[in-house]
Structures are given as C-alpha cells and as structure tokens.
Design brief:
By secondary structure, the chain is an alpha+beta fold. The protein contains 2 helices and 5 strands; from the N terminus they run ββαββαβ. A hairpin with a 5-residue loop joins strand 1 and strand 2. The model has no long low-confidence stretch (mean pLDDT about 85).
C-alpha cells in the first residue's frame, strides 16, 4: 500500500476505507494517499499507524492527502 512517485521514492500510503469505517467517516476516499500527519511525513502504513497511536488522544490533527492516488 506504499505509494511511490515517478522516481520510485515513497511518498505516502494508500487508503481504501470501507463504509462506516473511521477513515470513511473522516472523509477519506478510496485510493487517497496519506503523505503526512501533523507535519510528520509518513511513507508507509506502519508509520501512519505509529502516528495515529501517538495522536489518538488529540481531538484534532492535520492530515495531508493526495486525492485519488495523486
């Protein structure tokens, strides 16, 4: 699920939310690529999960995405 640019560098991770999931309810769409969370660059789902657990008690955070796979 790691997404790469034309040079082969990791640029984020692709999400595929299902209806009624947290990601779907937050407005994510299928094939969105998460590139950063609170200005912390994420290049894999593991980094995204780690960022989520670090922020899970926060009421708000900034997530940057490339809509529809870039």
């Amino acid at each position: 699920w790691r997404s790469r640019n034309e040079q082969g560098e990791a640029i984020g991770f692709k999400v595929r939310p299902t209806e009624c999931s947290i990601l779907f309810n937050a407005g994510f769409e299928s094939n969105d690529i998460v590139t950063s969370i609170n200005e912390r660059v994420v290049t894999s789902a593991l980094e995204g999960i780690q960022a989520y657990f670090a922020l899970r008690r926060d009421k708000a955070f900034d997530v940057r995405v490339l809509r529809g796979g870039g």
